[in-house]
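LAB NOTEBOOK - FOLDING QUEUE
OPERATOR: T.R.
BATCH SIZE: 2
PURPOSE: Compare the predicted structure-token outputs for two unrelated chains run back to back under identical settings.
PRIORITY: normal
REVIEWER: second-year student, initials M.K.

ITEM 1
FIELD SEQUENCE / FIELD STRUCTURE:
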Amino acid sequence: MININVTLVLQLINFLLLMFLLNRLLFRPLVRLLDERSARTEGRQAEAERAEAEAEAMLADYEGKIRDARGAADAARSEVLRKADTERQGVLAQATEEAAKTVAEIRARVRGETEQARQALRIQADQLAAAAAARILGRTV
């Protein structure tokens, strides 16, 4: 037979008091801490995604500039070759010699300018990567 006495009531009061205190002192702060942590993580992830999208946009811009520079170099080279061909038709022997010199000079200049542009773009890409890494990591690299 079940015997209900004062100890059961005291144990019930003790249990309810313990639940109240644990809820106030442990469970609520823990849940709040986990919610804050989750919000920070989501914020940082969104920031990282935005930085990655920005880096991709910059990379696409740089690639477009490289294509434009190559197109301009090709156009300049084509123009010089066209002029050299016209000259060669006028004075065959002299034009052949001058055209070879002109083409060699332009190719060297184009190579030099292309290499300078590549070096400048590499430096900018490295700086961009460092800035993106610093932004993602939240500290300087």
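ITEM 2
FIELD SEQUENCE / FIELD STRUCTURE:
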Amino acid sequence: MPEESKVETLSSEMTGATRSAETARALIRKTKRATRRRFPTEEKIRIVMEGVRGEVSVAEPCRREGIHPTIYYKWLKDFMEAGKARMRGDTLREATSDEVKALRRENERLKQLVADLSVANLLLKKSQS
């Protein structure tokens, strides 16, 4: 019987340690996500262009900027894909919030114009009959 209680105690300690390790890993993952550097598009292009020029090895800008070479090559692939799309004539892009606001204002103005013309047209029809 004493042997069984030792095994149970050891088992419960292992379970607690496992939970503690999982909690620590989750906390580390959460912290890494929250503190991850985010590079603006202009910075990514600058770093990629520096590597493309070939004046220095790819490792040099990666070391200086603190990024992994895998990230650099992902940015390079994205950069090249965007260039290919532009060359094909795919100019579809996301609108900025200012452009969206301007388009909404123009849309509202045109709707008002159509409504005014419809009313004028209706009045002309009624006056002629």
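REVIEWER COMMENT (ITEM 2): The helical segments are 2-35, 41-53, 59-65, 69-88, 97-128.
FOLLOW-UP: none requested
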